[in-house]
Write a structure and sequence with these properties.
Helices cover 11% and strands 42% of the residues. The chain is globular. With 193 residues, it is mainly β. The protein contains one helix and 20 strands. Strand 7 and strand 8 form a beta hairpin.
């Protein structure tokens, strides 16, 4: 009896091991019973280049376009809004997630932007913006943010960037709430276009 159970266990263990090795990247079973490939894993800051690609100002708003480039050999997934903390001496402000801002973002009302599957070397972007016109206290004009700290949804890893707005010769203003748009495919101020 002992020999029979041990003899059955070894082939079963070997079959389990081999299936986990060969099907490790498979996560679902299709209608025919065959395994189908799993989708890409969430992106990680260690595999992304993150930088301020552009700046813009219009109608009392100023903002930056933050780019995310996939440097890995595999695709990864960005979804939702990154966590952005704008900083200046003595003040840290967490950006409010918004679908769009005065400067752009996701403009298709009543729908959610789709997840962005970033292939190797592809780009995604978000807009981080704030108002530059004081409502009550004019001191905000002189107290602009110096940096922004970026982290991906569900991650505590972060990257600090300058709050300088390229082409605007200034930094992110602090006269109204800082806002951040969702990840969009490519370097774009507005989607869908």
């Amino acid at each position: 009896m002992k020999g029979a159970a041990g003899g059955l266990f070894r082939p079963l263990a070997l079959a389990t091991l081999l299936s986990s090795l060969f099907l490790g990247g498979m996560s679902t079973v299709g209608p025919s019973g065959a395994a189908t490939p799993a989708g890409p894993a969430p992106c990680s800051l260690k595999n992304l280049s993150v930088y301020v690609a552009s700046g813009a100002a219009a109608g009392g708003s100023e903002g930056m376009l933050i780019a995310f480039r996939n440097n890995d050999r595999r695709a990864c997934l960005l979804q939702g809004h990154p966590r952005i903390v704008a900083k200046r001496p003595g003040v840290s402000t967490v950006a409010v997630p918004k679908e769009n801002t005065y400067l752009g973002g996701w403009v298709e009302q009543g729908t959610q932007p789709p997840p962005v599957e970033l292939q190797p070397h592809e780009l995604a972007s978000v807009i981080v913006g704030s108002g530059d016109e004081p409502f009550k206290d004019f001191s905000c004009v002189h107290h602009r943010y110096r940096s922004v700290v970026v982290s991906l949804p569900g991650s505590t890893v972060s990257k600090q960037l300058s709050a300088a707005l390229p082409r605007e010769a200034t930094t992110l203003p602090s006269c109204s709430a800082v806002q951040v748009t969702p990840f969009l495919r490519g370097l774009t101020w507005e989607a869908p276009t």
